[in-house]
Amino acid sequence: MTILEVKSLKKIYKTRFRGNQVEALSNISFSVDQGEFIAIMGESGSGKTTLLNIMASLDSPSEGSVLLNGKSYADIREDELSSFRRDNLGFVFQDFNLLDNLNIKDNILLPLVLSNCSRKVMKERLFPLVRKLGIENLMRKFPYEVSGGQKQRTAVARSLITSPSLILADEPTGALDSHSSEELLKLFSELNREGQTIMMVTHSVQAAGCANRVLFIKDGKIICEVSKHSPNEDITQKIFSVLSAISTARETS
Ligand SMILES: Nc1ncnc2c1ncn2[C@@H]1O[C@H](COP(=O)(O)OP(=O)(O)OP(=O)(O)O)[C@@H](O)[C@H]1O
């Protein structure tokens, strides 16, 4: 079942300097099925963050549309966008985006508090989730008292607490040491095996290798994709080959 459809996206940024224009995305189309784990790779400036921001409904395209579970973002009223995002999407960022003045428990519960959820529901959702993520002993600590890996697990718990259709992750391993990165990738793979749909922007081949499908962006266009033909297939070599072809093309152009 398709949950996300991205149709003919174009994004033009107008810069103030002499009215110059930057075409950050041109004619991007793809769809995401329920239960997929997709990585987006591309060189710096290729348009990954622009694409993620549009899929997150944080920015709007110049042309084209995005539909989540059949609902077009263009049909959502401005004052309903933040609750739509909260209910349907989970976010994991490179720098965790936790609130320093809230403890770990309150950071995780924040999306439910903003949705006026009852304490009973909060409790029912929180404990199984933090036990699963191995952070149940950190509930009273503050973000500055826990490790980077624990902060990212907290961010993952916060992203999952609303049971979103889709997790959008922007360089989730970017600020982690190699051990914590591996742990996070294992966690993402496990969540995906249980049915969670994930889209992740990454520069890391190791991270992209955990996805079932990798989309490669160059100059705002999807230039190719690779995918696993069986769940245990190692696609690292395929990813390296595409990255190397992109870099050779850049050097010879
Ligand atoms: N607000 C903006 N105004 C003007 N140009 C922008 C703006 N944001 C991004 N761009 C330009 O759009 C293009 C794509 O940028 P984007 O940030 O999406 O790339 P990226 O692949 O995420 O890069 P990185 O990996 O370095 O984060 C770049 O040329 C960038 O300079």
UniProtKB/TrEMBL annotation:
Pfam families given in the database record: ABC_tran
Annotated SUPFAM superfamilies: P-loop containing nucleoside triphosphate hydrolases
Residue intervals of the ABC transporter domain: 4-244
Keywords for the protein's UniProt record, in alphabetical order: ATP-binding, Nucleotide-binding, Transport
One Gene Ontology MF term: ATP hydrolysis activity
Family annotation (InterPro entries): AAA+_ATPase, ABC_transporter-like_ATP-bd, MacB-like_ATP-bd, P-loop_NTPase
Entry GO terms, CC: membrane protein complex
Domain of life: Bacteria
CDD domains: ABC_MJ0796_LolCDE_FtsE
Family listed: Belongs to the ABC transporter superfamily.
Protein name (Swiss-Prot/TrEMBL): Putative ABC transport system ATP-binding protein
Source species: Marininema mesophilum
